[in-house]
Amino acid sequence: MDQSNVSAAMFRGDSATSAEDRPYWDPELETQSRADWDALKLDLLKAHLHHAYDNSPYYRESFDAAGVKPGDLKTFDDLRRFPTLNKTVLRERQEAKPLLGDLAAVPEDEVVYVSASSGSTGVPTVSPFTQGDFDAWIDYEARQFWSSGLRPNDRYAHSLNFSLFIGGPCVLGAQKLGALSIHAGTVPSERLLTILQTFQATAMWTTPSYAWYLGETALKEGIDPKTDLAVKRIFVAGEPGGSIPETRSRIEALWGADVYDYYGLSDIFGACAGMCEAKDGLHWAEDHIHVEVIDPETGEPVAPGGRGEMVLTTLKKQARPLIRFRTGDIVSFTEEKCTCGRTSMRLMGVHGRLDDMLVIRGVNIFPSDVEAIIRKDHDFTGEYRLLVDRVNHLDQLTVEAEKIAGFNGTDADLADRLKHHIKAVTGVGAKVSILEPDALPRATHKAKRVEDRRDHVWTP
Prior knowledge:
four-stranded mixed beta sheet, disordered N terminus
């Protein structure tokens, strides 16, 4: 049965028990062979390139300039002949032809929804959807929620921003599978705790930093998240923390709940990948988006399992195709079958962003590398910050980390221990500053982990 045509009503009443026992939202699709996945994607890709070339002025111009035509694609390797684009191009083409830009491949009267990026690094970029695009997206969200164990008898609090944010409408995926959905939004922490208590919500979605902050806030308010709240599933996104086992386990211990990491980007649609109940990587929306992992400097493919920049190509999105979009995210993937039985490729972690990567005396290091070390050591609260200075023409990394209340050792010994582990894991020699509990600011959305004090950044 094609679950994309199933309404939430199917899961109610007498059929609820049997429906909730189903392990998959779309069994035929989710468990098909790798050969079938590749055949499906290649057919979609061929048609999508034609759609982009025939209907988008930008793609016709860029393909012609590169000397390629949609018909040139016979295998996935042929896609490497097609030009890449990035966020800068999206902004420039949108500004050149407002509102949707000339990447759009449908007239505006076919667009029913737009999201927009925050614009924190430039002009906000709009992501348009036709009705078909929107419906396909929400069906994928239902599929992803289902794989993470959300069911029609859950009460789901969606505590993400609804103001043009691509994560807002993801709540409709929870509604589609039949869960009682609470559109909480980004309300003050005390208000959200009241909502969680009043509705006895069993699941919620937020960022890893905010899940940690909210749990700490609850304890300060005299609320034990493990016993006074009903939350048993927390979906997190927006930061690498959800795929760092040490971070995830500490949030789970604080809440007494399972944490599932999700990944999305405003330029395509909400959650493009997410953890199933096995929590071994994030299942990718492989029937919607083709993935390449490349060396960011050479553009050459990275071996399976290796780290590289993620480049994405939409396979179905009609309103604005994205062909070989360079995300700036450093990732790794596997195509091995998951223990849950799903066969889609899995995102094994967003290890950082190119613009977050620090080069300290020739060694690359991401905040997530340090986070894994600190969150593993329970003499630290888990909060940290990286400071980068230039001293005598050399880059110096200082790691600020909070010790727990009641720590019995000396700050010097704790600093030496952390310094040793950072050097052993990353190869970077860092200074370490031990702070008192609650010395660092808590994030109510995405945590700012790096303070770069250099006048300009250069790499050897």
